[in-house]
Amino acid sequence: MTTSKSTQAIVPNCHVIKIGGSTLATLSDSFVHSLKRRVEAGQNVILVHGGGPDINTALAEREITSEVIDGIRVTTPEMIHIIRNTLLGDVNSRLVGKLNAAGISAVGLSGFDGLFSSDYLNQEVYQEVGEVMEVNGGKFELLLKAGIIPVLACIGVSPDGKPLNINADTLASGVASGVEAKSLLLVTDTPGIKRNGETVKDTTPTEIVNMIEDGTIYGGMIPKVKGALECLETGVKAVQITDDSLTGTTIHAISPYTKHPRKEANIHA
């Protein structure tokens, strides 16, 4: 579990949006326009992105195979530099370029820029994979006050300066917790959690645990929901798992069916 407490100022009115790598390739103009409306409305937005398909292609070109355990890519020392270069040099620059072309001031960043610190998740199991340890809220606030959206590639740095591959959902959750974000939106190629072929519209942490145990939630969805639960524990009111249509499953800190629920965060773009 991450311990991503902010070391400085907490960012006000902050919303963290994570975009999955498979979604980036077909990211719609309507999504970009929605993001621009958020910024113009005064929201502080932090973007976090993955890059699975691009990483798969880069590894395949070098005839390198990789193993995935519970949705997390086991990253060997041979792979980490390829992953770093792909995420920072290709994926991040494309996304930042698209945002700036749409009139959204954005800058590409990673753990090497001091916005968050990280360490090995479990080196024996995952090798060069990291988790978020602390978030520097002050640096995020400086960028956002200047009207610049931080676009984070999911690359961290170990205490001894080595690059670490961080699951994008884990990074987004850690940052959202660290800056005490009002909401976390996980944009993927899957329209939320499916149960018996139907999308679960609203759910709670207790129901999430039950769905993991009975196998309803599996594979890459596991780190998504686990990260969401960590965020809810640290004060984020709601986490939405959605596709590019921005509709999907909302995980509430408390049941949406209770008699006197807290006011939920608006997480619709």
What does this structure look like?
36% of the residues lie in helices and 24% in strands. With 269 residues, the protein is an alpha/beta fold. It has one domain: Carbamate kinase, CATH 3.40.1160.10. The strands form five sheets. It has an eight-stranded mixed sheet, sandwiched between helices. Mean pLDDT is 87; it is low at 258-269. Its EC number is 2.7.2.8. It holds the Pfam family AA_kinase. It is an enzyme of class 2 (transferase). Pathway: Amino-acid biosynthesis; L-arginine biosynthesis; N(2)-acetyl-L-ornithine from L-glutamate: step 2/4.
> How many discrete domains?
1
Portion of residues within helices: 25-40%
CATH class: Alpha Beta
- Structural class by helix and strand composition: alpha/beta
Overall pLDDT metric: 87
First-last Cα distance = 28 Å
Can you tell me the overall shape? globular
CATH topology: Carbamate kinase
